């Protein structure tokens, strides 16, 4: 829960129950019998007289134009400083804060409302609290790290305190709903891992995804029934616990429905659904579709959900190739992969291979580019490459490439992990895939490759001549 604290400008404030914590000013700290964990300094001049009274100091950066000089001076002192930094829309100033954030904890001091881009930019920094002097933009506090709110006024204005507690309640609710995950997650390996049932349960909560799939399946069946004027053969590949299968099963009077699922944990649930809901009219196989495809014959419609966070990173092209027949329609029809250069404070020096990351600390610093595209059926080109020079925004740096996807399911219906247009259903069950790079400025000369062999596939990315994940040594996706 977001806490509300106060700068104690008077000794009486320390004993108030309205605050979860307090930070005494230098004058108040001198009146206390116990040593405060932090002391608020009005100026650096007070440091020399109070250096023995506190373990750490909270000090304000008064003029952002001299941020570098001020932070250099603090770094030379033998004390722990938490720096209150004004929030200003200045690229050069933000760059200084980014450079020093490994040396200091920050407390943001908003003054004016920020544009949406600048809110994202500041949220990519690491800060522990927000100093409230008056109204502020709650979005700055909606972070996975859940920064505290600190009230600061000479007499602790009651209206300001009341607003702060109201902010805290609202922010806590927003953080709970946002479901940020500020740690690195291994991408799923569905060909070699048996996903536990609770993972499927999480996926099934993604209502926009299943709404889009339902519309796409209905539209495809409508078109095919008109065109082919007969009962259709429909296959669902990897149905999991059955949501896509249930959508297709609504048309059982007009289709012959088959499902192939390789996870034995799901098979018993599918068989029970088949018995209780579909009158045992669905044919269910357990196994690898790449092995079973030849014995199953041709299908009019193949439905799958083998889409990874980067689109093709769960081997969808390789898996579905076995079903590529001239008269087969597939859902999805195309999958596109996108890359956006970004800065993410969590990435700096920490990782060297791809991970999934649902963080609010990533800020895009250049335009998004499509890197790969796969069409279904009849897409035999598993290896693809992309080359492009990204010009970074002024005074920005990049330390990661953020990967997302868009999939055209059928007709005009598309889903994606990020919004590229108003017709795309944005889905929550895919987190962005990040590809770390060495920190670069000015431009990124990128060569991005997808390499697929008989037993594994991997990505290599070369930035300004420096190659990452060469030969898939750091990370690859098993195909067998």
UniProtKB/TrEMBL annotation:
Protein's name according to its UniProt entry: PRMT5 arginine-N-methyltransferase domain-containing protein
GO molecular function, one term: protein-arginine N-methyltransferase activity
PANTHER family per the UniProt record, alphabetical: PROTEIN ARGININE N-METHYLTRANSFERASE 5
Gene Ontology CC annotations of this record: cytosol; nucleus
Pfam families on file: PRMT5, PRMT5_C
Annotated source species: Candidozyma auris
Coiled coil: none
Keywords, sorted A to Z: S-adenosyl-L-methionine
